[in-house]
Amino acid sequence: MEELLHEIAVRRAKRALREDPVPEEVLERVLTAATCAPSCFNNQPWRFVVINDMENLEAVRGFLSSGNYWAKKAPVVVLAATKADLDCRLSEGRNYAFFDLGQAVQSMILQATKEGLIAHPIAGFKPLEIKQAFGIPQEYTLLTLVIIGYPGSEDHLNDKHKELEHSERSRKDQSEVVFFNGWINP
């Protein structure tokens, strides 16, 4: 892991957050990293709504699943959305908008990690309600929320999440997911 980019090697989906605000210049670098991501024909199909004021954070918090209780401490939540016709639509259902949005979110996460932040994408939320609350058009898919904040105390985490904060990083063996010169059923 020593040869990997440091941010890739150390990034984890942590949950222990402080409520301290993220300075505007730091948040700007995180968002710039996202918008510098590659995309099919440079279409840049990502759309981000940054939530960082208390009134709007409270609204988002009301739409989180119970398992994402920890995210209610976050001073920033980024709503990440796209729609298929913003990007390349290729044969066999290869709609690149979702892939390209994922690349942008990954760039955001890596820059946030470099800035000393936790950036944790989540899927546990009510997308229709959030789209309505923040004016995201119906034809867009709100794919993920990225929870952003500085590392903080674990006091508010349940036992399972406290354990996860300190567990070893778990990845599948590469032989299960990487094949050379043809598909192999492991």
Describe this structure in words.
- With 186 residues, the chain is α+β, with helices and mostly antiparallel strands.
- It has a single domain (15-168), classed as NADH Oxidase.
- It is 34% helix and 16% strand.
- It has helices spanning 6-10, 24-35, 54-61, 96-114, 127-133, 159-166, 174-177; strands at residues 47-51, 76-82, 89-90, 94-95, 118-122, 141-149.
- The protein has a four-stranded antiparallel beta sheet, sandwiched between helices.
- It is globular.
- It starts with 5 loop residues before the first helix and ends in a 9-residue tail after the last helix.
Task: Report low-confidence residues grouped into runs of 5 or more.
Answer: none
- Helix-strand sequence: HHEHEEEHEHEHH
Query: Can you tell me the CATH class?
Result: Alpha Beta
CATH topology: NADH Oxidase
User: Could you give me the name of the CATH homologous superfamily?
Assistant: NADH Oxidase
Helix and strand content put the structural class at alpha+beta
Strand order of the largest sheet: 1-2-6-5
Q: Label the overall shape.
A: globular
Rg to the nearest angstrom?
17 Å
User: How many helix segments?
Assistant: 7
Helix-residue proportion: 25-40%
